[in-house]
């Protein structure tokens, strides 16, 4: 028999002996299924079981009822009967034979071990340690035996006897015993501490004793010659871990053999080990800190330590202790949840990706726990081999995450796109062209010229015969937009437009846009990836685009060029170089529209980004049918747009709500003309007007620009900071908080700041706080409240103070001159004043009780993607060491893919510059990049500045109510979709 197997069996039996004590000889109850198998495979039961069970003395026995049942089964069981008859009889007390299962179940029950006088047997059932092993090939019986005895069982598999593992209850019992042992040790330490001063050496010795290789390591161990002392030390560690479990070899074996059936049991030991170690540290710490008693139910209650003892511990230590106990509990319950189900069962329904994620997370979790353990020991885990172990796991985790991310980007409807291509109606022209070229070649007429034309169009998707060049593209300006917006009439030929429309319809992929409310956008869309078509359209467009755009970094680029972006990132010359190959084909039916918006932009990096929208109308829609593209004045409040939300009954009888711009806000209109191209800078507020009749199709893309001059040297640091910050955010949003922390840590302080220019050219420094900074800046969180407070006070001053003063004066007058009118006046004013004081009081109380207010540090400083992210703004006056804080904004994780914008506040002196818009837009992008799809917020009618900002940014009011705190003041709930906000930070 293999040594490993023997070792395992020995460990199991030792554990049983430690938990229950084992009788000698060890009774083995054999049932007919086991005996039958033994007979079939010619197994000598006493010999083989003796060897299997580590050479222990065994007493093989059976019961009368088992034999009786065999007799009843007749000649089939004759051989088995013979085998069973050779065994000793365990007294089963059944005067009338019962079924073997019932009899064995009773025999296995510890209470059934009382001997009877009349039944002589060599099996000593009077022994209090009498706890038999069941030998049975019946699974049902074995699981019953596990429950009743807590002992492992024996079975025969392919003629080989096997010992099953320890039942879960026994393992738990064993762990408790060990924990109790540890407590006793800790109590001893307490006694020593009480007798003399704290014996620091105890702690010191413990700390040294635990040092050693990471038992969770999967790396190959370096063979070292151990000194006697080291050997002793490692023995101690192993005896602390578990007499029977060598964790490193366990994990290694798992890696080598894959996940066999026994795998799921192993991490239980790991968990037990870590939990024990943490608790042990905790106990030792408490006993060493003060000579007090440690409550026996330490881990049972919430705090873990009795109230009176808690009082003796200094505040800062107490909080840490309680957190430690709480964390240990959490760890335990998390592991329990995972371990409750066998591995195979738990992962049965998982996709390979989910399975890989589960495995890696588990591995990462175990190593992370060991990291915690080392920290508890006072060691620096970053210098320990657990560090390399964690690093090693992170690589595959990243790859798995990258795969998962891919799955989360179902932007292009691949099937529809394939059908679009397959339908090939718009490619027909290309095939036709090729055919003609071949014919022409064959005819060898005007070979050189024609071949040149043919080559040019070889891969063309656009129709060479319907060349718009011939018809002439006509450039038409829009208002005073200049190069920032114009129309190219006849950009696509009618045939090209029709083929695009037909192919889109044939693909069946035109669907409502996901994540958008119908009130906001009701048209249908097909997203395509067509690099060749994009390339050809760009070649046609290129002559009409400026050769370069120049940003000097001084002027306000947003007003002069109307593109999104920070000036320091835009500074320099840019040239148009391609169209975004991701094309969006939209269809409007009567009643459908697209509310006022700014188009999203595509940023590859700081040298390559989109700046202009490319939009071709594929249909003619006369002005009387609506459906124009309206350019809007964005200097006006968005609230006017919201207020024009209207409800209309469409021709099909459906009732539709729609947000649209009022006439007064429209600067100019472009009516759809088949084949016309509309080019305009992204940062132009516009809308797709409601279509009244007919069908409208458009094809949309983005014009990409790239840098032609080097980025300014001085901005190197900023770019690096931006890259690091994005990387940290990416990691953090994937739950790799530790790594994100490392990256954040490597960012220099100054580099963490970004420059932001607001609408009126005001430059600000914007800062994303780290958890640590957030803790330090905690007080800042109160600012928006104090502003609200001030605003409220202003309101109240106009009524409450004046009314109180009036009421007091009236009362004085009435008292002095005894005028009934004054009495009446005082009586009328006093209750209103009282009511307002009451309101103020209520507001103050509720402010302090707001859940997010109370838990603010927790949100700011908690790990993981649920954190609240804050952006703080300083004025960026040159040379100012400590620039004043001018505003805050933050975001709070709500649930799933929804977050909440909170604490937007801009000092009154800085309002009206577009600061609020800029930071909110930035926050929306940050949140969208983190995977949030929706952002909600709550505000009141009193905060008109904020309301305007939200509405400008596309937030839609979803609810309105009044609360007891501010009676009569409407409270609004707003919501915005973030799906278009995602993208690299610019
Ligand atoms: O349909 C229109 O006229 C406007 C469409 C639009 O703005 C867009 O798709 O982004
Ligand atoms: Fe648009």
TrEMBL record:
List GO terms (cellular component aspect).
exosome (RNase complex); small-subunit processome
Entry's localization field: Nucleus
This protein's record includes keyword Translocase: no
Sorted UniProt keywords: Coiled coil, Dioxygenase, Iron, Metal-binding, Nucleus, Oxidoreductase, RNA-binding, rRNA processing
Is-annotated flag, keyword rRNA-binding? Answer: no
Q: Can you tell me which residues the record assigns to a coiled coil?
A: 714-741
**Cross-referenced CDD domains, in alphabetical order?**
NAT_SF (cd04301)
Return one GO MF term. Answer: acyltransferase activity, transferring groups other than amino-acyl groups
Q: Where is the N-acetyltransferase domain?
A: 840-976
* InterPro entries xrefs: Acyl_CoA_acyltransferase (IPR016181), Exosome-assoc_fac/DNA_repair (IPR011082), Fcf1/UTP23 (IPR006984), GNAT_dom (IPR000182), Oxoglu/Fe-dep_dioxygenase_dom (IPR005123), Pro_4_hyd_alph (IPR006620), Pro_4_hyd_alph_FE2OG_OXY (IPR044862), Sas10/Utp3/C1D (IPR007146)
Instruction: Give residue ranges for domain Fe2OG dioxygenase.
Output: 578-705
Q: Where is this region: Disordered?
A: 205-236
One BP term from GO: regulation of gene expression
Domain of life of the organism encoding this protein: Eukaryota
What cofactor(s) does the depicted protein rely on? L-ascorbate
Family from the record: Belongs to the C1D family.
Q: What is this protein called?
A: Nuclear nucleic acid-binding protein C1D
Q: Which organism is it from?
A: Macrostomum lignano
């Amino acid at each position: 028999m293999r040594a490993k197997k023997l070792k395992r069996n020995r460990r199991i039996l030792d554990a049983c002996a430690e938990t229950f004590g084992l009788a000698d000889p060890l009774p083995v109850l054999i049932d007919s299924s086991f005996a039958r198998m033994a007979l079939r495979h010619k197994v000598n039961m006493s010999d083989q079981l003796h060897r299997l069970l580590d050479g222990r003395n065994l007493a093989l026995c059976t019961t009368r009822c088992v034999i009786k049942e065999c007799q009843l089964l007749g000649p089939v069981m004759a051989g088995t009967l013979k085998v069973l008859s050779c065994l000793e009889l365990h007294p089963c007390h059944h005067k009338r034979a019962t079924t073997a299962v019932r009899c064995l179940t009773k025999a296995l029950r510890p209470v059934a071990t009382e001997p009877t006088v009349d039944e002589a047997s060599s099996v000593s059932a009077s022994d209090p340690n009498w706890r038999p092993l069941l030998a049975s090939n019946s699974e049902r019986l074995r699981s019953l035996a596990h429950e009743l005895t807590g002992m492992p069982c024996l079975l025969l598999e392919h003629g080989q006897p096997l010992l099953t593992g320890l039942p879960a209850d026994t393992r738990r019992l064993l762990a408790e015993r060990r924990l109790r042992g540890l407590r006793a040790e800790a109590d001893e330490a307490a006694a020593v501490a009480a007798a003399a001063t704290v014996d620091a050496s105890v702690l010191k010795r413990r700390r040294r004793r635990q040092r050693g290789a990471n038992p969770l390591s999967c790396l190959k161990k370096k063979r070292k010659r151990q000194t006697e002392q080291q050997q002793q030390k490692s023995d101690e560690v192993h005896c602390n871990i578990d007499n029977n479990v060598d964790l490193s070899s366990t994990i290694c074996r798992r890696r080598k053999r894959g996940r066999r059936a026994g795998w799921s049991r192993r991490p239980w030991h790991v968990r037990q080990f870590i939990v024990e170690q943490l608790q042990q540290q905790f106990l030792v710490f408490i006993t060493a800190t003060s000579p007090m008693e440690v409550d026996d139910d330490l881990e049972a209650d919430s705090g873990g330590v009795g109230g009176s003892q808690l009082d003796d511990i200094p505040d800062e230590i107490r909080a840490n202790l309680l957190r430690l106990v709480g964390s240990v509990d959490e760890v335990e319950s998390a592991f329990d949840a995972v371990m409750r189900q066998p591995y195979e069962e738990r992962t049965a329904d998982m996709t390979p990706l989910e399975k890989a994620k589960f495995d890696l997370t588990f591995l990462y979790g175990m190593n992370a726990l060991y990291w915690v353990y080392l920290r508890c020991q006072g060691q620096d885990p970053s210098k320990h081999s657990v560090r390399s172990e964690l690093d090693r796991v992170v690589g595959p985790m990243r790859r798995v995450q990258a795969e998962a991310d891919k799955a989360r980007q179902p932007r292009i409807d691949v099937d529809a796109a394939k059908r679009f291509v397959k339908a090939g109606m718009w490619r027909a022209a290309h095939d036709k062209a090729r055919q003609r070229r071949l014919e022409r070649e064959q005819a060898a007429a005007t070979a050189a010229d024609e071949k040149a034309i043919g080559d040019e169009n070889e891969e063309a998707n656009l129709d060479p015969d319907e060349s718009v060049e011939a018809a002439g593209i006509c450039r038409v300006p829009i208002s005073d937009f200049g190069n920032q917006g114009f129309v190219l009439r006849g950009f696509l030929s009618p045939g090209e437009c029709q083929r695009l429309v037909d192919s889109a319809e044939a693909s069946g992929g035109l669907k409502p846009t996901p994540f958008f409310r119908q009130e906001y956008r009701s048209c249908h869309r097909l997203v395509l990836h067509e690099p060749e078509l994009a390339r050809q359209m760009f070649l046609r467009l290129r002559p009409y685009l400026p050769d370069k755009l120049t940003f000097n970094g001084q002027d306000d680029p947003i007003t002069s060029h109307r593109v999104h972006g920070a000036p320091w990132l835009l500074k320099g010359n840019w040239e148009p170089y391609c169209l975004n190959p991701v094309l969006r084909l939209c269809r409007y039916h009567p009643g459908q529209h697209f509310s006022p918006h700014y188009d999203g932009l595509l940023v590859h990096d700081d040298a390559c980004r989109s700046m202009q929208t490319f939009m071709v109308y594929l249909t003619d829609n006369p002005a009387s049918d609506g459906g124009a593209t309206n350019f809007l004045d964005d200097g006006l409040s968005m609230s006017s747009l919201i207020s024009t939300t209207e409800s209309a009954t469409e021709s099909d009888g459906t009732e539709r709500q729609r947000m649209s711009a009022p006439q007064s806000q429209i600067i100019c209109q472009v009516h759809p003309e088949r084949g016309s191209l509309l080019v305009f800078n992204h940062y132009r507020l516009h809308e797709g007007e409601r279509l009244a009749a007919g069908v409208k199709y458009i094809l949309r893309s983005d014009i990409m620009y790239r840098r032609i001059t080097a980025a300014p040297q001085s901005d190197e640091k900023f770019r690096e900071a931006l890259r690091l910050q994005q990387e940290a955010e990416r990691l953090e949003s994937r739950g790799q908080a530790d790594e994100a922390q490392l990256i954040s840590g490597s960012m220099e302080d100054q580099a963490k700041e970004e420059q932001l220019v607001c609408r009126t050219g005001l430059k600000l420094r914007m800062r994303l706080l780290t958890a640590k900074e957030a803790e330090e800046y905690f007080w800042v969180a109160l600012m928006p409240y104090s502003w609200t407070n001030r605003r409220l006070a202003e309101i109240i001053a106009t009524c409450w103070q004046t009314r109180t003063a009036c009421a007091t004066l009236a009362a004085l007058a009435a008292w002095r001159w005894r005028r009934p009118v004054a009495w009446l006046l005082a009586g009328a004013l006093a209750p209103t004043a009282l009511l307002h004081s009451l309101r103020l009081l209520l507001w103050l109380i509720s402010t302090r009780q707001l859940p997010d207010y109370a838990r603010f540090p927790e949100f700011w400083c908690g790990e993981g993607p649920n954190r609240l992210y804050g952006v703080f703004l300083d004025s960026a006056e040159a040379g100012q060491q400590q620039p004043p804080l001018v505003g805050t904004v933050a975001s709070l994780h709500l649930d799933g893919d929804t977050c909440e914008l909170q604490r937007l506040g801009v000092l009154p002196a800085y309002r009206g510059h577009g600061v609020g818009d800029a930071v909110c837009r930035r926050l929306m992008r940050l949140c969208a990049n983190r995977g949030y799809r929706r952002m909600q917020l709550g505000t009141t009618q009193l905060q008109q500045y904020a309301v305007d900002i939200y509405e400008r940014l596309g937030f839609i009011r979803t609810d309105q109510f009044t609360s007891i705190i501010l009676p009569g003041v409407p409270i609004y709930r707003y919501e915005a979709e973030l799906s278009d906000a995602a993208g690299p930070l610019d």
